Amino acid sequence: MCGALRTDLVEVQPILEGADAGVAAGRTNVGRLSRLVRSGKATPEDVTGLADCKRACEAALAERDNCMNHFHAAACAVLSEAQRRTLTNIRANSKWKVPTPYLVVNRTPEEWMELEEFLDIERIEARWELDVPEEVATVLAAARADAAYATANTAFDTNLAALKVAADSSIRD
Fold first, then answer.
1. Which residue would you say has higher pLDDT here, 166 or 155?
2. Total structural domains within the chain
3. 30 plus 106 within the same structural domain
4. d(Cα 4, Cα 78) in Å, to the nearest integer?
5. What is the 3-state secondary structure (H, E, C) of 48-91?
6. How far is CA 133 from CA 4, 93, 99, 119, in A?
């Protein structure tokens, strides 16, 4: 599996790097031109250039997304349906600022915001050696009792070190 992924990464990497560079340059130019336009110091060419830079940045983002989708599909090709579903959920939910095992469960935006907030409260209370409020403890206990979370958390804790070693050696070879 790692050999096939390495081959795929080698093929996609230059395209991904080009897209990343395009996104970075586009964002820089969009920011610079946006500031000029907002300040009233932009020339007509700057205004046209801003629109062009936004389109170029969007195109680079689309190319980057295509590369990432290609790599994700290649990585998932050798996995079981359950493993693919888990990775797809993690990828889809990755915008939320919670530890990875929580990402395997789909939630409403309100539930995600509550989970983020309650995990922050738990972390802060632990730092100050205070008791976690009952509501926070109850919601977090329910999230941790979910079978998908429990499986992912166990697998994450058990396999993370081995995965890092395998990935590092695969990329170096």
1. 155
2. 2
3. no
4. 10
5. HHHHHHHHHHHHHHHHHHHHHHHHHHHHHCCCCHHHHHHHHHHH
6. 48, 26, 20, 12
